[in-house]
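Students often ask why inverse folding is considered easier than folding. One informal answer: many sequences map to the same fold, so there is more than one right answer. In these notes we will look at a single instance of the problem. The structure comes first.
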């Protein structure tokens, strides 16, 4: 929204260094590390590509929040470069998920639907809670934007895994799981492109700031 007062660099920086935002990031970090462990074990046990993809995503987000905490008090250029790195990591995650789905499809692994459904429900509750905490910071700089996008994408992915569990249960095949895993990969690649584009705009604004007024 053009009229948003936090569209400026000064306001974004103030929001990024607020104690409330730091606390939200710490909570998100702990939640994501915990869910990474849960989904990693459950994904391997259930043979689910979508759960494994979500586990990797949780780990990536934990790293995302940790890096974000480290650069909060730094300048816009540092935060933008960090966001650029995270965007590239999100893209790498998307490619990994595509490979995992192809592997499971080739070997015909049929996941356990009940485990998928239970774990996806717990993950959805965790991600919705994190997304609500970070909602107010979605319009900040590229680094804050990347944090919000990760949380939003995670909640969408959890709903998709739940649908995949229903599909596996109803059909007795792995295809619902593989289709959702592929969709999650596409979502990760789309988010990566948006974060990278935002980071490049922030870097460009630092390198070539617009003059505040014409000289007399």
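Output (designed amino acids):
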């Amino acid at each position: 929204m053009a009229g948003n007062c936090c569209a400026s660099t000064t306001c974004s920086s103030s929001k990024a260094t607020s104690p409330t935002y730091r606390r939200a990031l710490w909570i998100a970090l702990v939640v994501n590390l915990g869910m990474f462990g849960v989904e990693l074990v459950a994904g391997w046990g259930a043979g689910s590509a979508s759960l494994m993809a979500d586990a990797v995503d949780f780990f990536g987000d934990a790293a995302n929040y940790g890096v974000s905490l480290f650069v909060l008090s730094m300048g816009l250029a540092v935060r933008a470069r960090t966001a650029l790195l995270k965007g590239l990591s999100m893209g790498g995650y998307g490619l990994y998920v595509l490979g995992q789905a192809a592997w499971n499809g080739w070997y015909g692994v049929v996941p356990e639907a009940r485990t998928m459904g239970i774990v996806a429900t717990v993950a959805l509750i965790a991600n919705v809670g994190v997304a609500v905490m970070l909602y107010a910071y979605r319009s900040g700089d590229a680094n804050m934007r990347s944090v919000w996008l990760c949380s939003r994408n995670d909640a969408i992915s959890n709903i998709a895994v739940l649908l995949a569990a229903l599909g596996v249960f109803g059909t007795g095949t792995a295809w619902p799981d593989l289709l959702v895993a592929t969709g999650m990969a596409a979502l990760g690649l789309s988010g990566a492109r948006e974060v990278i584009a935002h980071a490049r705009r922030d870097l460009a604004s630092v390198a070539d700031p617009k003059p505040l007024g014409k000289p007399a």
